[in-house]
Design a protein that fits this description.
Layout (H helix, E strand, L loop, with lengths): L12 E7 L2 E7 L1 H6 L6 H13 L1 H13 L10 H7 L5 H6 L1 H12 L10 H25 L3 H18 L1
Antiparallel strand pairs: 1-2
Helix pairs in contact: 7-8
Length: about 170
């Protein structure tokens, strides 16, 4: 991930502030962290983190102002347009506006990863086929254990289900 302040260096620090249902995430590179008074030296981090957090809102405003001016280098889609229309102009927009889109998808869809979804009828059919396979396995086990009464019941259930799956 790139630094939210300079936008060019690799971020090595991720700070998240959650206050009254508002979440602010800032990713900072080592140089910008030093400039803001935050060092990576463990002895100094507690004191310097207080300084950084006291300036959190100012840093957020700087980042937001910087983001407003950003454009996709391939298609030229502006950040403001992306934010307003919720549509990326091209595949490169996802890389360019990665931080915003990741937070947007997490807040709206619960995750930034698309895991897919089956239409209702397909999901129902898959469950029925899984149930059918399970019953066939139970039937096989009942026959091998010579439990013929249970096997007869399972055979009838499978026969009944078979009429509705195909």
């Amino acid at each position: 991930m790139k630094c939210d302040i300079c936008g060019s260096s690799k971020a090595v620090i991720h700070i998240q502030q959650i206050f009254e249902n508002t979440e602010i995430n800032i990713k900072i590179c080592e140089k910008c962290a030093r400039d803001k008074g935050l060092t990576l030296d463990n002895r100094e981090i507690g004191r310097n983190l207080k300084v950084l957090l006291s300036n959190f809102e100012q840093i957020k405003k700087v980042i937001d102002t910087k983001n407003e001016k950003r454009r996709c280098p391939v298609c030229g889609t502006e950040f403001n347009v992306l934010k307003k229309d919720c549509r990326a102009g091209c595949a490169s927009c996802y890389s360019e506006f990665e931080n915003y889109l990741e937070n947007f998808y997490k807040s709206t869809a619960g995750s930034s990863e698309h895991k897919g979804k089956y239409p209702g009828k397909v999901a129902l059919l898959i469950r029925k086929k899984q149930n059918y396979a399970r019953l066939e396995k139970e039937l096989e086990d009942a026959v091998s254990n010579e439990n013929y009464e249970k096997a007869a019941v399972l055979r009838d259930r499978i026969k009944f289900m078979g009429n509705y799956i195909d």
